[in-house]
Amino acid sequence: MGGSSRENAHTLRRLHDGSGLLSAAAMRKLDETLPWYRALPAEDRSWVNLVAQAGISSFISWFSDPSVPPHGASEIFAAAPPELTRSISLQHTLQLVRLIVEVVEDHSDRLAAPGAERDLREAVLRYSREVAFSAAEVYARAAEVRGAWDARLEALVVDALVRGDADDALRSRVAALGWSGHGKALVLVGTTSAPLDDVRAAELRRATRRAADDALVGIQGERLVVVLGGEGDLRAGAELLLARFGPGPVVIGPSVASLDEAGRSAAAALAGLSAARAWPTAPRPVAADDLLPERVLVGDEVARRTLVEQAYRPLVAAGGSLLDTLAAHVEHGRSLEAAARVLYVHPNTVRYRLRKVAEVTGWDPLDAREAYVLQTALALGRLDET
User: Fold this and answer.
1) Which helix (H) or strand (E) holds 220?
2) Pick from 291, 330, 321, 323: which is nearest to 307 by CA?
3) 346-354 long-range CB contacts below 8 Å, 24 or more apart?
4) pLDDT tens for each residue of 48-94
5) Cystine design at 72: which of 36, 62, 68, 134 (Cβ 3.0–4.6 Å)?
6) Shortest CA distance to 211 belongs to which of 174, 245, 171?
């Protein structure tokens, strides 16, 4: 820094005396020239004001001994909460630095000792470059910390959803993670081929956010739990993520109206994952509701009630001979002729009644897999009546 020691000492005294003037001028210029600053909440504006004042004070301290490297942005931001880096971007911070430079330059004629105006301008430009470089480091560290915190918060949220804990605290945490809350939600679960490191976990999170409007990822050892939400085709979004799972079944829970009900989708998907081994030829992905018989085998009461309520009871309510015809068909090798002999009717009559069974229940007894579902529902319904 040029200039005589005497001139610099004189300038330094004038800077100390004029620090209040510089701070006031910076506050006015913030409000006049930066729309993003005016849009901030009052509390965040006060923190930005504090950061600007700290920048001016830091410059004056450095000017007293230019041989020492300038304080970086981390020291200037030290008095503000870490969350401020969420409210103002790196670009905004650089605008703030430029504004402080402009304020000092605007007042250099008044604050510098006679003949030292150029030295003061050069000093503030040198200082601003150092602060700008260090600001990038502050934001890089903040992003790293924020990413780690978001991942931990996301894991806690997914765990809570799996447990069915939907309360105001959970909604607040989900909102903090950027969940918009528009549209429906569903949960898909599967396993990984190997434990995910930070890089692969980050790639998985980016992929889920491309697959749906809203997404959450829970990495529970080798088990993956993904929550998708939004107004688009969530099933299609889930299928886009298949390659992110390891070998083995991937189960999609039923679509629910909102994230508040995601626990129901998660419970069905997790029960389906536990039971999927009993259906080795199941499609991938497989809907949890397509695994109802297998879920019953692992003790899923929801699956048991679903089969009774959606298959057995509608057939009972339909009256006539639909239930007897279904029983004869599944208990005699799914043969139309064998069922007809037992019922003393024509095979075409059996076929007609089975089509009615499909209309009433949604499962077609002429399909091998769906006949198995109906046979399970028949057995469960009989047990409930004993």
Assistant:
1) strand 214-220
2) 291
3) 350/325, 353/321, 353/322, 353/325, 353/326, 354/325, 354/326, 354/329
4) 788 777 777 777 777 777 666 555 555 666 656 666 666 666 567 76
5) 134
6) 245
